[in-house]
Design a protein that fits this description.
By secondary structure, this protein is an alpha/beta fold. The protein folds into 2 domains: 313 residues, Alpha-Beta Barrel (TIM Barrel), CATH 3.20.20.480; 31 residues, no CATH class. The chain contains 18 helices and 18 strands.
């Protein structure tokens, strides 16, 4: 028995069917804009109607139904629930655990943050999108790889500029040679649809460029905002997102030969007072649950944006918002991925929050655990032996099972009030801060680059700086 990954029929069958049918009508009647003649030609060769002048491709309903029927399915019945995480570093400030201030990044701070993530057993790694180190400028995607590999993080796979494509390829070729792996096994590049169902000219160029070198660029969805880039209603936003996700699966098939069904969801509201796109609202949770239900019906794998917060510092708000989306998404979707340490809608990275999130992740894994239900775990003989009003502290059954059955916190309180006061009245944030200080004072820098590879990577980056005229960068 495990708790997560079971059907949660939030919608009735007719409601779910309406969303699915409406998504197919969007693809058939409105289609998708792809600002690349080369990619449109590939779509036409795949049998889809294309208008090269308006840069539009349509997905007829029979075509989509046939694709869904033949695509590789996700086995919801046998798949094991999973909790995963990394410590994401985005366009953010660093929450200094010593001063409690939000400050710019430095390479020393980045090295510590990556080391801290590695020491958290339920996080394990950091990841960086772009480069947070000052002075990298428009070369951020190149420095992203350099600093990620140097400090043991995962690259966030940014590309951003057409002009950087040849130099990103060179970096990966150098890295592949150093680790003795094929380039296609280690390459990571991602572009995103910014408006819904529209692949812009630069993103399309980048996909085509690396495809010419037998490398796949992931094409991510547009992270819809209800009331701004998507309908204001849950039903409308989930429908548009489903249409976009299905269109992206067709692109994966036509461009790269993949027939896997995967439906992602990152749907948030627009705050009508401030116009921000908050992460910590209940609507994101409900959109995840609706999308998970449809994914299950289609036999598609599901991933929902969760474990996020709008809070700017570690607080009750941050913990509540992260749990608000993580727990339901895990329960209905069967998996959840959490960006540990992240606060303030991706604008703050906090070592203290990273440690607190590790504790949350540890607790979440209990929902994925297989609990045995058998004559032994029921313990009928033990219950009968204890009798009415009996106790179980001295029973062999207790000694034999409590470590496997019970989760034990590392930071969350496990004391009564008096002993907690006697030991300094420390809150979870206080304990996390002490752990951060301890790691910061004793961590060893990660040596991810050999001197030879580091020299080669910096040479490639400098070549890009000299060769590309910054004033003529594509826009």
């Amino acid at each position: 028995m495990h708790t997560a990954g079971h059907p949660y029929p939030l919608m009735t069958d007719p409601e779910a069917r309406l969303i699915q049918d409406s998504a197919l009508h969007i693809l058939s009647e409105m289609g998708m804009e792809i600002q690349s003649q080369r990619l449109l030609k590939v779509m036409a060769e795949a049998g889809l109607p294309v208008n090269f002048q308006t840069e539009r491709v349509w997905f007829p309903i029979p075509f989509m139904e046939d694709f869904i029927a033949q695509a590789e399915k996700h086995d919801w019945e046998t798949s094991q629930p999973e909790v995963s995480a990394s410590a994401g570093v985005y366009h953010s400030l660093y929450h200094d655990p010593a001063t409690d201030q939000l400050v710019p990044w430095s390479e020393e701070k980045l090295a510590f943050y990556c080391a801290l993530a590695r020491q958290m057993p339920f996080v394990g790694t950091a990841s960086m999108l772009g480069s947070r180190i000052p002075g990298t400028g428009w070369l951020e995607p190149l420095y992203e790889r350099y600093y990620s590999w140097k400090h043991g993080a995962q690259e966030g796979s940014s590309i951003w500029l057409d002009e950087l494509c040849p130099y990103l390829l060179e970096l990966y070729q150098a890295r592949a040679s150093d680790v003795q792996q094929p380039v296609e096994d280690i390459f990571q590049g991602t572009v995103y649809l910014v408006p819904a169902l529209k692949l812009g000219k630069h993103e399309a160029y980048q996909v085509a460029y690396f495809r010419d070198h037998n490398l796949q660029v992931q094409i991510g969805g547009s992270m819809l905002t209800m009331g701004a880039s998507a309908p204001v209603t849950l039903a409308g936003a989930v429908t548009l997102n489903l249409a976009e996700q299905l269109a992206l699966r067709i692109l994966d098939w036509a461009l790269f030969g993949k027939r896997q069904l995967l439906i992602n969801a990152s749907i948030a509201v627009m705050d009508m007072r401030t116009t921000i796109r908050p992460f910590g609202r209940p609507e994101m949770v409900m959109a995840n649950l609706m999308t998970a239900q449809i994914a299950r019906k289609l036999g598609a794998a599901f991933s929902g944006h969760a474990g996020l917060t709008d809070s700017k510092l570690p607080s009750v708000e941050s913990g509540a918002q992260k749990a608000l989306s993580a727990v339901p998404t895990l329960m209905a979707g069967g998996n959840v991925w959490v960006d540990a340490g992240l606060l303030g809608i991706d604008e703050v990275c906090s070592p203290i929050q990273l440690i607190l999130d590790n504790e949350l992740l540890s607790a979440l894994t209990q929902f994925t655990k297989d609990y045995e239900i058998s004559a032994d775990t029921v313990g009928l003989g033990t219950i009968l032996e204890a009798g009415p009003g009996g106790q179980y502290l001295d029973q062999r059954h207790t000694a034999g099972h409590f470590r496997q059955e019970h989760w034990n916190p590392a930071i969350w309180s496990r004391q009564m009030l008096r002993s907690w006061i006697d030991e300094g009245s420390k809150l979870d944030v206080d304990k996390a801060r002490e752990i951060a200080w301890e790691v910061q004072n004793h961590f060893q820098p990660y040596e991810g680059l050999s001197p030879t590879l580091e020299k080669e990577l910096t040479k490639i980056i400098e070549k890009a700086r000299e060769a590309v005229d910054e004033s003529n960068i594509s826009s």
